[in-house]
Structure formats: C-alpha cells, structure tokens
Amino acid sequence: MADVVLGDMAPSVSDNFLSDSRPQSRLCHNAHEKAELYLRPGVKFVAKVLHCG
C-alpha cells in the first residue's frame, strides 16, 4: 500500500468550460478510483480541476 500517489494529468481543453468540464471530471473520478486501489486506508486524495473559458 502507498502513502502517496502523485499524478500530473489533464485532458485536452478548449475555451468552452461546458464541454471541457466533463472530461476533466471523468479524469479526476478515474484517478480517484485507481488511487483507491493503491493507497492505504485513511489516506486522502487531492485533485485539481481547472476552470477554463
């Protein structure tokens, strides 16, 4: 089990927040699901979603 899972990822984005928000949210959700497989219990998950547009 890990204490930290660090990633730096972002989907391709445009200037349209409405169309960009879904891929960013999906990527964040998928990263959280994968991190849960490797993080030891009680460790926090932190992610950043950029506001585009």
UniProtKB/TrEMBL annotation:
Entries under InterPro entries matching the protein: RNA_MeTrfase_FtsJ_dom (IPR002877), SAM-dependent_MTases_sf (IPR029063)
Ribosomal RNA methyltransferase FtsJ domain segment(s): 2-51
Gene Ontology molecular-function annotations: methyltransferase activity
Superkingdom, taxonomy of origin: Eukaryota
Pfam families per the UniProt record, alphabetical: FtsJ
GO biological processes: methylation
Protein name: Ribosomal RNA methyltransferase FtsJ domain-containing protein
